[in-house]
């Protein structure tokens, strides 16, 4: 059994603050156990709006938003107990309007895939993670940087262990599993119910309605991490320009969350080691290896097309119940039921970057 001290986890995110809203308590838990956790931010979040009303007109922040976001990110990493790397690409922004305007020149989503993939391969070969996390193919919600983060992470997962790929980007290293961050509609439902029982309005009614219009994912992995929820919240608050301290992230008291839903969910997308699902550990199947590093250094088996031979490949989203009233609207396209010209998940996502 490999001790936590020998294990490494890399969480790849689009913008600074995503690492604190998706899988943050899981990162904090593994870090506290001695796993080496690295957060990678693909972009600097330079095109994010200031979403905290109390800071909207702050002249110092407006003068240097990217500097402010770098300091916020450093603080969040410190709170979570993780190390952090900037991949160095420019935020694509969230295009809005009908028709959508073109993406800004030179942004992350428009960079050639070989350039972005090589940058991530270099970081993977340097940090040598056994497990990667990223977003599903829809990006969780349709932000161009989130979708690109998925594409680049999956390309880097395929290439990092290939000695012929990006030979100037370090010694080959093959991560053994890649996960998508999950978002459980049941969790929102249970939390809403608990709040109603306590005599409050359900804080997530709109969010749940928006989730019902998105493809449903098959969540394979639940990580118990309730004791790290306070760190998650502190890390979120560290992104002060992006997170309203009175907003929905903090609408349910911590003790209610810890009692009602003490886990974070993930979707296993690819594994080179045999797995037994559902699981409760991102390193399941890896801890059991005599020498995980040796396996990651070895060139992985590939088929005739050069694709990795997988022990497990993720399932497509669940088939849609054709009788459900919201089927027509179920979509990976931007959704705008309230007609405000913005995707309805935008405010729930908690950032515009
Ligand atoms: Zn983001």
What would you say this structure looks like, in words?
This protein is of the alpha/beta class. The protein has a single domain, classed as LmbE-like (Rossmann fold, 3-Layer(aba) Sandwich). 32% of the residues lie in helices and 13% in strands. It has twelve helices and eight strands. Strands 1, 2, 3, 4, 5, 6, 7 and 8 form an eight-stranded mixed beta sheet that branches. Helix 6 (144-159) links the parallel strand 4 (131-134) and strand 5. Helix 4 runs antiparallel to helix 9 (229-238) and helix 5 packs across helix 6 (144-159). The longest helix has 16 residues, at 65-80. The chain starts with 7 loop residues before the first strand and ends with a helix. It binds zinc ion (ZN). Zinc ion (ZN) is lined by residues 14-15, 18, 143, 146, 351, 353. Zinc ion (ZN) binds next to loops.
Topology:
Layout: E1 8-13, H1 18-21, H2 24-33, E2 36-43, H3 59-63, H4 65-80, E3 83-89, H5 113-127, E4 131-134, H6 144-159, E5 177-181, H7 185-197, H8 205-211, E6 221-224, H9 229-238, H10 254-260, E7 263-271, H11 292-297, E8 312-313, H12 346-349
Parallel strand pairs: 1-2, 1-4, 2-3, 4-5
Antiparallel strand pairs: 5-7, 6-7, 7-8
Helix pairs in contact: 4-9, 5-6, 7-8
Bound molecules: zinc ion.
Residues 14-15, 18, 143, 146, 351, 353 line the site of zinc ion.
């Amino acid at each position: 059994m490999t001790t936590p001290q020998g294990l490494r986890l890399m969480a790849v995110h689009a913008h600074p603050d995503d690492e604190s809203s998706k899988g943050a308590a899981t990162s904090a838990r593994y870090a506290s156990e001695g796993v080496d956790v690295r957060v990678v931010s693909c972009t600097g979040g330079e095109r994010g709006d200031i979403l905290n009303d109390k800071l909207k007109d702050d002249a110092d922040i407006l003068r240097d938003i990217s500097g402010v976001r770098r300091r916020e990110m450093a603080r969040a990493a410190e709170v979570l107990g993780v190390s952090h790397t900037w991949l160095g690409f420019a935020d694509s922004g969230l295009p809005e309007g009908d028709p959508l305007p073109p993406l800004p020149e030179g942004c992350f989503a428009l960079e050639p895939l070989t350039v972005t993939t090589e940058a991530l391969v270099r970081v993977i070969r340097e940090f040598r993670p056994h497990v990667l996390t990223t977003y599903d193919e829809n990006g969780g919600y349709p932000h161009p940087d989130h979708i690109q983060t998925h594409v680049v992470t999956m390309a880097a997962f395929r290439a990092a262990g290939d000695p012929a790929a990006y030979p100037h980007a370090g010694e080959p290293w093959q991560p053994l599993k890649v996960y998508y961050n999950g978002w459980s509609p049941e969790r929102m439902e249970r939390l809403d119910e608990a709040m109603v029982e306590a005599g409050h309005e359900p804080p997530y009614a709109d969010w749940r309605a928006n989730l019902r219009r998105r493809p449903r994912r098959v969540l394979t992995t639940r990580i118990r991490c309730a004791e790290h929820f306070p760190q998650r919240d502190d890390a979120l608050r560290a992104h002060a320009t992006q997170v309203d301290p009175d907003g929905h992230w903090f609408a349910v008291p911590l003790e209610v969350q810890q009692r009602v839903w003490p886990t974070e969910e993930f979707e296993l997308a690819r594994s080179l080691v045999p797995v037994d699902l559902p699981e409760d550990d991102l390193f399941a199947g890896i801890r059991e290896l005599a020498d995980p590093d040796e396996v990651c250094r070895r060139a992985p088996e590939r088929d005739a097309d050069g694709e990795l031979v997988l022990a497990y490949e993720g399932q497509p989203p669940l088939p849609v119940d054709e009788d459900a009233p919201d089927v027509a609207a179920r979509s990976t396209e931007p959704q705008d039921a309230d007609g405000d010209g913005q995707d309805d998940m935008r405010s729930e996502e908690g950032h515009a970057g």
